[in-house]
Specification:
The chain is mostly helical and 113 residues long. It has a domain at 54-108. It has 2 helices and 2 strands. The protein has helices at residues 8-31, 53-78, and strands at 84-90, 97-100. A two-stranded antiparallel ribbon has the order 1-2. Strand 1 and strand 2 form a beta hairpin.
């Protein structure tokens, strides 16, 4: 079995052929039609069903009170939301009393947040 070696010109031609074939395959795959976009085929993308803006607005306005109550209940569980002013302590930039409470970790009582 005789081994033949390629000349530098042979390697250049072989390399050029490989690059040309690879480029052609990549370009054809990029510009090919996507089979998922054809009609009648399903895809993993779930389309958005858009409702009329007025209906969505009315629905959200109706749900607002319940959502706000739920959020305030969650805040009340996590933080002490009472308005307790610290006597003798004022804010540096505005002349008003600083408040104790959620800002200083009063809900747990250990000073952590």
């Amino acid at each position: 079995m005789k081994h033949t070696t390629l000349s530098p010109q042979g390697w250049a031609i072989l390399g050029f052929g490989f690059m040309t074939t690879t480029t052609a395959v990549l370009v054809s795959s990029v510009f090919a039609d996507d089979p998922d976009k054809t009609e009648g085929k399903s895809s993993s993308y779930t389309s958005v069903v858009e409702e009329d803006f007025g209906k969505v607005m009315a629905k959200m306005k109706g749900e607002k009170a319940a959502v706000m109550k739920r959020q305030m209940d969650l805040l009340g569980e996590r933080y002490d939301l009472s308005n307790k002013a610290l006597k003798g302590v004022t804010m540096s930039r505005r002349p008003r009393q600083a408040a104790a409470g959620a800002d200083v970790g009063q809900a747990r009582g250990d000073g952590s947040r």
